[in-house]
Amino acid sequence: MKMEEVSMSSLDNSKLEALAQDILSDLVEDACLGLCFEVHRAVKQGYFFLDDTDQESMRDFEIVDQPGLDVFGQVYNQWKNKECVCPNCSRSIAASRFAPHLEKCLGMGRNSSRIANRRIVTGNNTNNKSESDQEDNDDVNDNDWSYGAEKKAKKRKSDKNPNSPRRSKSFKHKSNMMGPRRRMDNQESPRMLMKDEAFSQ
Amino acid sequence: MSKESRMKATVNQKLTEMGERERLKELLRAKLTECGWKDQMKAHCKEVIKEKGLEHVTVEDLVVEITPKGRALVPDSVKKELLHRIRAFLAQHAT
């Protein structure tokens, strides 16, 4: 059915508004009635009061709203300060550091083999005692941003195997540099003359 | 029938035909559940039932007790949103 254009345009805003309110009112009433039917059926079928238990149980399981407790009434940060004893090294470790410590201690984490290798290298050159006395040994090693780890990393680089191929490479590199430099030195300082040069002149 | 009531009938018919009425109903129901209105009303129902007795309560009892309170307890935000949708529909299809 087409809307009558004449009647539409003659309506002012207040009438449209009243119409909107009417429609809303209808919808709300519809929702209320819907709820009534739903409840009535639940009552007659006997399932309306199913989620209620006796008063005592209701009180037992009521939601807890106290500071420091969760909704079940348990203390939720009581493991922050607890300490656990490591079954491997028998040290007392803070709970939050326990899992990473176990990883290193048992040799099972991602980096534990790397750290163990590093330690073997430094263990040959420096005194082992100073490292094992530190309490947070594990943390310092795997923390990229700590100054202590940086120092150790730098130290280890210098302790690399002197027989590694890298070393000989640097000698090769030096000899290559000799070529072009030689000519320059000839002109500027006679002191830099090589044995060969003396003869070729 | 007056001009306005004819208009109203036409609008209502259009609302139903286009499915907008159903959508609005669903939207209203969802909003009312979300804001806790339904739970409030259910709690009120429990009181009414305890008063009238579980065996003897009728639909009429519930309707009479629930509807006025229900209308009053609808939050303004929900009303506003529904009105917005209705006005948009009217603007689009009634003028």
Automatic annotation (TrEMBL), chain A:
Q: Where is this region: Disordered?
A: 116-201
Any single GO CC term annotated in Swiss-Prot or TrEMBL for this entry: DUBm complex
Q: Which residues form the signal peptide?
A: none
Give the ZnF (SGF11-type) ranges. Answer: 84-105
Lineage, top-rank taxon, reads: Eukaryota
One GO BP: chromatin organization
**Residue stretches of biased makeup (Basic residues):** 166-175
Q: Which UniProt keywords apply?
A: Activator, Chromatin regulator, Metal-binding, Nucleus, Transcription, Transcription regulation, Zinc, Zinc-finger
Q: Quote the subunit structure annotation.
A: Component of some SAGA transcription coactivator-HAT complexes. Within the SAGA complex, participates to a subcomplex of SAGA called the DUB module (deubiquitination module).
Domain notes per entry = The C-terminal SGF11-type zinc-finger domain forms part of the 'catalytic lobe' of the SAGA deubiquitination module.
* PANTHER family in the record: ATAXIN-7-LIKE PROTEIN 3 (PTHR46367:SF1)
UniProt name for this protein: Ataxin-7-like protein 3
Supply the source organism for this entry: Stegastes partitus
Instruction: Report which gene this protein is encoded by.
Output: LOC103358556
UniProtKB/TrEMBL annotation, chain B:
Keywords of this entry:
Activator, Chromatin regulator, mRNA transport, Nucleus, Protein transport, Transcription, Transcription regulation, Translocation, Transport
Example GO biological process term?
mRNA export from nucleus
GO cellular component terms, alphabetically, are: DUBm complex; nuclear pore; nucleoplasm; SAGA complex; transcription export complex 2
Entry's Pfam families?
A: EnY2
- Places the protein is found: Nucleus, Nucleoplasm
Query: Which GO terms of the molecular function aspect are on file?
Result: transcription coactivator activity
The organism sits in which domain of life?
Answer: Eukaryota
What InterPro entries has UniProt attached to this entry? TF_ENY2, TF_EnY2_sf
Where does it mainly reside?
A: nucleus
Name the Gene3D superfamilies on file. 1.10.246.140
The text of the family note is: Belongs to the ENY2 family.
Role according to the record: Involved in mRNA export coupled transcription activation by association with both the TREX-2 and the SAGA complexes. The transcription regulatory histone acetylation (HAT) complex SAGA is a multiprotein complex that activates transcription by remodeling chromatin and mediating histone acetylation and deubiquitination. Within the SAGA complex, participates in a subcomplex that specifically deubiquitinates histones. The SAGA complex is recruited to specific gene promoters by activators, where it is required for transcription. Involved in mRNA export coupled transcription activation by association with both the TREX-2 and the SAGA complexes. The transcription regulatory histone acetylation (HAT) complex SAGA is a multiprotein complex that activates transcription by remodeling chromatin and mediating histone acetylation and deubiquitination. Within the SAGA complex, participates to a subcomplex that specifically deubiquitinates histones. The SAGA complex is recruited to specific gene promoters by activators, where it is required for transcription.
Subunit structure and binding partners: Component of the nuclear pore complex (NPC)-associated TREX-2 complex (transcription and export complex 2). Component of the SAGA transcription coactivator-HAT complex. Within the SAGA complex, participates in a subcomplex of SAGA called the DUB module (deubiquitination module). Component of the nuclear pore complex (NPC)-associated TREX-2 complex (transcription and export complex 2). Component of the SAGA transcription coactivator-HAT complex. Within the SAGA complex, participates to a subcomplex of SAGA called the DUB module (deubiquitination module).
Name of this protein? Transcription and mRNA export factor ENY2
